[in-house]
Amino acid sequence: MKKLNSIFLAGLFVIIPIAITFYILYIVVRFGDNITAPLLQYLHTAYNFPMIPGTGLILIIILIFVVGIIARNLIGKHIIKLLDLLFHTVPIINRIYGSIKEISNSFLGTKEGKVFKKVALVDYPHKGVKALGFITNETTLLDTKDEDYVSIFLPTTPNPTSGFFLLYKKKDVTILDMSIENALKMIISSGAVEKMKK
Fold it and tell me: Are 59 and 39 contacting, i.e. CB atoms less than 8 angstroms apart?
């Protein structure tokens, strides 16, 4: 019986990551097809374009590459700056757009507008228990005289897009020689990914 359980668990450990990977790919393909459904339907009706699952995702990937090519040339940069200025001047939209842009810049590792500066080790939820966080800013609070504080974003596991904003004394924060990407991998995996490359 123990041998059967061992064989079953071995098979389960192989199947689960494969099944979840294919399920996520299925969701992504469905998402891409749903977004581009009106365009695909028009192409199918007008030009007899085949309705193959995954075509929408391919179109989105092509669109991203086209936008990337445009963004890298001089005219494209001016257009993006104008659009950026427009989104930042429209009430309500400017708050949503600004927040999403800062978060995406942080997670995608772009230098412009990068929010996460360094990886830090802090005491949380109490002294003696350590947590990984990201330094977002260094500030001196007016009501603390000359004591330096740092702003820390403490992400939750396994969803690092949510978390807590905390202020720590600079002397109580340990800065780690770890990349933002590797720290995120460790947080998302709940510490299962331990081998870190600088």
Answer: yes
